[in-house]
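In this section we walk through a basic example: taking a raw amino acid sequence and producing a predicted 3D structure, encoded as discrete structure tokens. The instruction is simple. Fold the sequence below.
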Amino acid sequence: MYQSLYTAEIEGFEDEFKEVSSEWRFVLANDGEVISLNDEAARWFQRGTSFFLHLDEEECKKAIILLKSIFLQGKIFEFNLTHQFDSHIFTVSYNGKYKNGKFFLLGSCVIIQSQIPSMACGIRKSFLISSILMLFSIMI
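The resulting token sequence is shown next.
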């Protein structure tokens, strides 16, 4: 005998979804500073630091180009970035938009690798950060 299908409403279950979510959520300033982030992203990033800090040189350039495109075109973009930390590499699929002077990014990890060599030295990081600040100053 035919049984009707029932689709459960998801409203009212925000706490349950938050509990099982592994999304990274960021609000970034024009210069890439992390203004706000959710608990999952806070496992790897800190408020007040640069979003670009855990990207190698090529990924950093890619991120700048993508964020400038979001800024200039005012559209929602989907893109992947690979973040490198002391013990893990995360390839993250992001959706992003720009509104009211801020970037809003929502990311989902698509690839996770462990046991990687350390990131680039501090000198290269300083160069990358200064390059980022210079590029983003155009947008301010």
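Looking at the output, two observations stand out. The chain has one domain: 22-137. Residues 50 and 138 are 17 Å apart (CA to CA). In the next section we compare this with other chains.
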